[in-house]
Amino acid sequence: MLSQPPVWLILIAFVCALGPLVFIHEMGHYLVARWFGVGAEIFSIGFGREITGWTDKRGTRWKVGWLPLGGYVKFIGDEHAASAPGDLSQLTPEERERSFHHKPVWQRFLIVLAGPVSNFLLAIAIFAVFFASFGAPSSPPVVGEVQAESAAATAHIQPGDRILSIGGRETPTFEELRSFVVLRPGETVTVRLQREQQVRDVRLTLGTDVEEDRFGQSYKRGLLGVTPAGVVFEPVPPLRLIPEATTYVVKLTRTMLDALWQIITGRRSVKELGGPLKIAQVAGQQATLGLVAFVSLVALLSINLGFINLLPVPMLDGGHLLFYGIEAVQRRPVSPRAQDWAFRGGLAFILALLLLTTVNDLGSFGLWEGLGRLIG
Asked: Is 335 left (phi over 0), alpha (psi -120 to 50) or beta?
């Protein structure tokens, strides 16, 4: 087991991982807004009191806040960082021309959507570079070995069997099979497999295991009990790099969606949710493993940031997109009162989630167990 990285490395790695992702996200909003002629008053990386900053010739204040947990762009007409409309009647004619809230709903929709899209594009670019350098990981869904007394052994799966689908989802590669199984410990699923020329379906209950990584962190996972016949890194032609990287990002996003749905439906514990402290710890750990491991983590965090911001929660980009969708359908904006209550509820939800994940993070560090022993 590797030792935990020092606190100074964790802090530096956290800032180096999250800072660029927040910048890319907010720059997506900013560039599309400029394209549509929207003026920006503030471009901030981090929240709270300003550490440093400057004002450009367009009047935009570029600054860095002391709390590195996000960022925002405050456009002309915004009341605060969450982009709720302020008192638009007080704007001058010139300000109205450059106001975010006076733009057509489709332009506002695209400006908000540009942030999460920028994060997905960054992840695609990172994986495209990796695939160009090392090749794309791939393995056919062919069974190499079957572990004794496993779910696969109980269902009489044999080496050489090709697994065509599991739980109704096709498995063109062993990676697809693994990503499905890992998120479903203890679930009963149907496996469709091909043995020589015959196709058959078998029902089995996936095993459950607790995996401990090299840093001593534990994760609950599902087990089928098979290993692949072989894993290869296939060269990717230059013209296929972006499509292959895009497909890879889509697969990772779908895995995140599956995990979130399992938490919502109670099939996975909310204790598995991690927050800023866990991100900082993992960033420090990956930094000790080298540049490739750290940049891979940055790509995964970028997908997470884009995915989370698309959730239909007020205060997040997805909440704004929901409002603009409603506005487009009913041909009038959601009432200020309804937006105000929605933003209040969204803020309460985000704060509650932050508290929950912080408690989970501290628990994963062994704090609560240590306090229990101390008190006992």
From this structure: beta
| C-beta atoms surrounding 298 within 10 Å | 19
- Per-residue DSSP letters for 285-343? HHHHT-HHHHHHHHHHHHHHHHHHHTSS-TTSHHHHHHHHHHHHHHTSPPPHHHHHHHH
* Mean pLDDT by groups of 10 residues along the chain of 376 residues: 68 84 95 95 91 92 88 87 74 88 94 96 94 85 90 91 92 87 90 92 90 65 87 86 93 84 74 75 77 85 92 89 92 84 86 82 62 58
CA torsion through residues 267, 272, 274, 280, sign: negative
HSE-CB at 270 with a 13 A cutoff on CA atoms is 11
Residue 229: CB atoms within 10 Å: 16
Residues 355 and 360: their CA atoms lie apart, in Å, by 9
User: What positions carry a catalytic annotation?
Assistant: 26
CA atoms within 13 A on the CB side of 50: 10
Q: Give the CB-side neighbour count of residue 143, counting CA atoms within 13 A.
A: 23
- The model's pTM: 0.78
Burial class (CB in 10 A: 0-12, 13-18, 19+), 218: exposed
